[in-house]
Amino acid sequence: MNIKEELRGCSKEVEGNLFTLGEEGYWSNLNRDEGKKLVGLLQRMTTKEAISKYHPDLFDVIFSAKRPAGLEMLGLSGDEACVDCGCMWGALTIPLAKRCRHVLGIDQTMDSLKFLNKRAAEEGLDNIDLLCGDIRKVGIFKNRFDVAIVNGVLEWIPEEGSIELKSYFGKFSQKRYAADPGRQQMEFLKKVHQNLKAGGKLYLAIENRFDAKMFLGINDPHANMPLVSVLPRALASCVSFMMLGRPYVNWLYSFNGIRSLLKRSGFSAVELYMSFPDYRFPERIIPYTGSLKDIPEDLIYLKSGNANNKKPFIKKAARKIYNGCQWLTYKFLNIRRAAPSIIAIGYK
């Protein structure tokens, strides 16, 4: 039985290669109205035209050719069956489908999947199926995939309910959670492990908890607060309760932490890579055992920013301090554990 036959047996067909488990949720950079409007625009515009005109800030997030660079670490042959967990608008789904035999994209947001479906049609790709459902609950495809993608997703697994990022990111919103974030993340990874065939591979990308920038006061990319990723978990939650009304659940990991988490989730071996300037737009990917001394300066230095800043001297001085610390961390001391992002390849 192929994947599409399995989908027809366990879910409802919405249109063509789009299916639903009937448990739609919502997680998006766009609010619900913006998401629906974007889907409506696709009746008369291409996906690139719609994003260029109405959401230009998201164009590179969706379409940049830099996004899939990390897939090269998988050593794909072209005959793989893949699953992209939390695929959203297809930043990796589309390039993966061009490299593999078949891709199943799973996401809880129907509007995102409709956008991705249109994008796949524009690309002339007929080897993509899409499933709307909660990736934390999808454990129905045991031993079915050669490759599983978890790209910028693991840290969001502990979040409960719908998330409209514009109104949630760094905003006060009282909320409590029933389960331990680390346990939720491990249970999710165990399901991903079960979905892989023997010898299958996991591609996981995430920010490094101990990224050097975090120690310099740069805000956490999920809670929009300084230092919470590097603090002990309990203390980070106290800070988050005071500032945002909810605990800190978007747990990041160090390189050793990711290795340990994947091993405890069932993966027999793990390869680690450092990604610069981050995993979202990787320009330099280096094995964790490699050297950072040849990293181009423009991948670690803070750029000048707004020339109209009312306090340019302070901004310039702060930038020099920041850049000096980055140079010392990477190019002089070669502190690999402080690299900005982690790409991990886990083997079943």
Q: What is the strand and helix layout of this fold?
A:
Layout: H1 3-10, E1 12-15, E2 18-20, E3 27-28, H2 32-41, H3 47-54, H4 59-63, E4 81-85, H5 93-97, E5 102-107, H6 110-122, E6 128-132, E7 145-151, E8 163-164, H7 165-168, H8 181-195, E9 196-207, H9 212-215, H10 233-244, H11 255-264, E10 269-276, E11 284-287, H12 312-332, E12 341-347
Parallel strand pairs: 2-6, 3-8, 4-5, 4-7, 5-6, 7-9
Antiparallel strand pairs: 1-2, 9-12, 10-11, 10-12
Helix pairs in contact: 2-6
Properties at a glance:
single chain, 348 residues, alpha/beta, ten-stranded mixed beta sheet, two-stranded parallel sheet
Give your account of this protein's structure.
By secondary structure, the chain is an alpha/beta fold. The longest helix is centred in the last third of the chain and has 21 residues, at 312-332. Helix 6 (110-122) links the parallel strand 5 (102-107) and strand 6. The strands form 2 sheets. It has a 10-stranded mixed β-sheet with strand order 1-2-6-5-4-7-9-12-10-11, sandwiched between helices. The mean pLDDT is 94. Helix content is 33%, strand content 19%. It contains 12 helices and 12 strands.
Strand order across the biggest sheet? 1-2-6-5-4-7-9-12-10-11
* Oligomerization status of the protein chains: single chain
Indicate the percent of residues in helices. Answer: 25-40%
The global form is: globular
Mean pLDDT: 94
Q: Which structural category do the helix and sheet elements fall into?
A: alpha/beta
Order of helices and strands: HEEEHHHEHEHEEEHHEHHHEEHE
Tally of helical segments: 12
Could you give a short account of the major beta sheet?
A: 10 strands, mixed
Percent in strands = 15-25%
Radius of gyration, taken over Cα atoms and rounded to an integer in Å: 20 Å
The CA-CA distance between the termini, in Å, is 22 Å
pLDDT under 50 segments (min length 5)?
Answer: none
Strand count:
12
